[in-house]
Amino acid sequence: MDKIFSIIAREKKRQKEQLQMIPSENYASAAVMKTVGSCLMNKYAEGYPNRRYYQGNVNLDAVEDLCRERILKAFGLDDKKWGANVQPHSGCEANLGVYNGLLKPGDKILSMYLPDGGHLSHGWPVTLVAKIFKVEFYHVDRKTQVFDYDQIETQAKKFRPKLLISGGTAYPRTINHKRLSQIAKSVGAYYMADIAHEAGLIAAGAHPSPFPFCDAATFTTHKTFRGPRGAAIIARASLMDKINFSVFPGLQGGPHLHTIAGISVAAAELATPQFRAYARQVIVNAQVLAKELIKGGLSVVSGGTDKHLVLVDLRPQNLSGWTVAWALEVANIITNRNTVPYDTASPYYPSGLRLGTPALTTRGMKVKEMIKISQWILAAVRYAQKVKLPQSKSAIKADRQLAAIGKEVKAFALKFPVPGLPAQAGL
Ligand code: DSN
Questions:
Q1: Is the CB of 220 under 6 A from ligand 1?
Q2: What is the Å distance from ligand 1's center to 118 Cα?
Q3: Can you give the residue ranges of the Serine hydroxymethyltransferase-like domain (predicted)?
Q4: Are residues 285 and 265 in the same domain?
């Protein structure tokens, strides 16, 4: 047997034994995983349905049509007013698809500052986007750690972008899409909402929607959307020709129709009452987590959350996010280190920790479990603070106190089956 299979078996075990708390991760269903691993992966299909550059695409056309239809339905959108492109391979490519379709080189983009929770692909200086377009960033308010829309309006009037972008990776509060679209309109800009993190919550009606306010929305399909790793663009019908031409042939070759089929399965799952209940529980769980961590003495950015993620500022504990994320990994709790607003530490050793509830909620965990998990997180943080854990991976990995927490966490995690990962051997 290929060595890769034993590596996959180890990863399957890890995903069951540890608590997955990275807010951008989730567990896809068995149906999604089966679809992605199907024969659809054998086929090239450059182009769009009924306009392919390869023969033999009768079934693949049906897959892509169905996916676009289900995506629009998931967000309650009229297909005469809105269109969808499900070919982008990732969130970055979906964003590029919009920029390349609607902007010209040298045009201006106004987007959220990365260390305040924005995203690289919104024009951070190291990216190709920043080489092609002129990018300026807006910030959260230093004190409240939420957006000040008047300030964004003032900045937009001065900078006059062609595209205003909202969204990102670590903003725990609701974004006022109506207000941002008005600001964009007032300066003649398009408004794009990157809803990668919240897409599933929005589709389930558990979080405010950017529709009908935005001109375009982009999202990945594996976060709260709970599908395979992929992405999609939804835009006003009048913009779709430009966006489609931008994605193919502008940016990509063959679409991954096996992934598109998996997205389609996930989109159908999203429309069920079970998923709507799941999405509401994801938010309740995150709010309980935030409350418990605050009660335990931690500083939570913006004082809480409206969605699936919680951002902890570890500066009061004088701890680095790097140290705490590694300590928690030894305790079998998987999180990620993250910058916090107005962070002066480097992105590799940032001052924050980002936690999320989508994957835990997929395993059926609720309020009681969140309280228990908060206690383990607090215990690890307090311990790291007390013993002044060194910035050394090997020392943290060898720590017996953290390993003892890890043992308890593993026994707890194994009580919650992962729906997409069957107990029997195999992939
Ligand atoms: N990697 C994603 C996240 O973790 O939020 C963003 O690209």
A1: no
A2: 10
A3: 3-377
A4: no
**Could you tell me the pTM of the whole model?**
0.97
Q: Is the pLDDT of residue 423 over 80?
A: no
Instruction: Confirm if 210 and 202 have CB atoms less than 8 A apart.
Output: yes
Domain membership flag for residue 133: yes
Q: Average of pLDDT values for 281-297?
A: 98
Whether 8 maps to a domain, the answer reads no
Residue 82 — φ and ψ, nearest 5°? Answer: -130, 150
CA distance 185 to 164: 10
Other beta carbons within 10 angstroms of residue 178's beta carbon come to 13
Does 251 lie in the same domain as 106? yes
What is the residue whose two structure tokens read 């916090």? 340
Specify whether 102 is located in the same domain as 240.
Answer: yes
- Give per-residue pLDDT as tens, 2-60: 999 999 999 999 999 999 999 999 999 999 999 999 999 999 999 999 999 999 999 99
C-alpha span between 166 and 71 (Å, rounded): 21
**Ligand 1 pocket test: which of 169, 222, 338 has the largest number of ligand atoms within 8 Å of its C-beta?**
169
CA-based R_g, the chain, Å: 22
- Out of 270, 300, 318, pick the residue that ends a domain: 270
**Is 319 inside any structural domain?**
yes
